[in-house]
Write a structure and sequence with these properties.
With 388 residues, the chain is α/β, with parallel strands linked by helices. The protein is 30% helix and 28% strand. The longest helix is centred in the C-terminal third of the chain and has 16 residues. The protein binds magnesium ion.
Length: 388
């Protein structure tokens, strides 16, 4: 039996990204909580028909790269060269021993590729040497010199070409062996130069390339429109009454004939809320982040837990749409402290009071809350999660 040659993806991320301004190279900057480069890497790594993924990086960025890929399964990266052409050639050449059948070459600054687009490219390669995605230009096109229109160009046969660009590996490998002094804009141009027929299939309008600082904002619009999900999440907590003269609920000190027992300040409401928020961003639970056997959390105000969690929420590119909490107890009377608690939550979380609903209920004398042994709180949070 002939062994099937693997399908591989090569992601170009070797640039220093100076055009998007100072700071981290753009491919390592976060977009809705996730580094730009990781968006496309996840899609490529998860695709069933792609066997191996490798990234071309700048030698100075090795640590940044390791931090970004973390748990993803990738081949060892390869260093880029001075130009895009050299980087691509280094990457392609590094696959020689693996001898892939198909290679998809992708620009790491294009985060929004889809499994369907990858399928289409691979499928179209069954009868072709080179296939690239593109979008037909519909705007009027002008050739301009010093701000003045010199010529109007007929756009009917003009396409904007994107990546990934898909090739029969042997064909693109050979194309890159030819000496060239030209600074090619993409791999399709290298293929074409060596006589390979390059076919264009329908790409995606949303498959944008992040080039200038404003592109990060455009990318966020795409995420909100095409990639956001609503998560409805729940948290629940109970604390027992003990000796004391107040309880803390939602960070508000409420005078009471007893206190709540706990390792921290026993703010049962904030604990339920934090648990819900952590669920929403797939970040475990409160016990994992603030273990009750650790001294540093002893008597700690639970507002600190909430602030820490809100930072995680924002780093994960999530937003809170609404919070609904139910306090289950006979006393204290929640309605008396509702506004103070809403104000406090609004301040810590940086969201409008209108998005925070708090209410109390009793269990009609039944169970531990009915017997006045403690307080239970249930928190339901609706979140908009962009990061997937
Ligand atoms: Mg608790």
């Amino acid at each position: 039996m002939i062994k099937k040659r693997p399908t591989v993806a090569l992601v170009l991320a070797g640039g220093q990204g100076t055009r998007v301004g100072v700071g981290l190279p753009k491919q390592y900057r976060k977009l809705a909580g996730k580094p730009l480069l990781r968006w496309s890497l996840e899609t490529l790594c998860q695709h069933q028909k792609i066997d191996y993924v490798k990234v071309v990086i700048h030698p100075d960025d090795e640590q940044l790269y390791r931090d970004v890929i973390a748990d993803l399964e990738l081949l060892e990266p390869v260093y880029g060269g001075q130009t895009r052409y050299e980087s691509s050639r280094n990457g392609i050449h590094s696959f020689k021993e693996l001898s892939p059948g198909i290679i998809l070459i992708h620009d790491g600054a294009r985060p929004f590729i889809t499994p369907k687009l990858l399928d289409q490219l691979i499928l179209n390669l069954t009868s072709r040497m080179a296939v690239v995605p593109g979008v037909q230009i519909v705007d009027a096109i002008k050739k301009i010199d010093k701000g003045l229109v010199e010529q109007t160009v007929d756009p009917s046969n003009l396409w904007r070409v994107q990546t990934p660009q898909a090739f029969q590996f042997d064909a693109i490998f050979s194309a890159y062996q030819l000496p060239s002094k030209l600074n090619f804009r993409d791999d399709a141009a290298v293929a074409q130069q060596s006589g390979i027929g390059v076919y264009v299939i329908d790409g995606l309008e949303e498959n944008i390339k992040i080039t200038v600082p404003g592109d990060f904002e455009n990318a966020l619009k795409v995420i909100v429109e095409k990639r956001s999900h609503i998560h409805v999440v729940n948290g629940f907590d109970v604390h027992k009454f003990g000796l004391g003269d107040h309880v803390k609920l939602c960070g508000v000190k409420i005078p009471f004939s007893r206190g709540l027992l706990g390792h921290s300040d026993a703010d049962v409401a904030l604990h339920a809320l934090v648990d819900a928020l952590l669920s929403g961003i797939d970040s475990g639970d409160i016990g994992q982040h603030f273990p009750s056997n650790e001294e540093r959390w002893r008597d700690r105000p639970s507002e600190d837990f909430l602030s820490y969690t809100m930072k995680l929420v924002s780093e994960n590119g999530a937003k809170i749409n609404h919070i609904d909490m139910t306090f289950i107890c006979n006393e204290p009377r929640i309605s008396e402290f509702r506004e103070a608690m809403r104000n406090k939550l609004s301040k810590i979380m940086g969201i409008s009071k209108k998005r925070i609903s708090l209410k109390g209920t009793t269990t009609d004398g039944l169970g531990f809350t009915g017997r006045g042994e403690g307080i239970a709180v249930q928190a339901t949070v609706t979140m908009i999660v962009y990061n997937e």
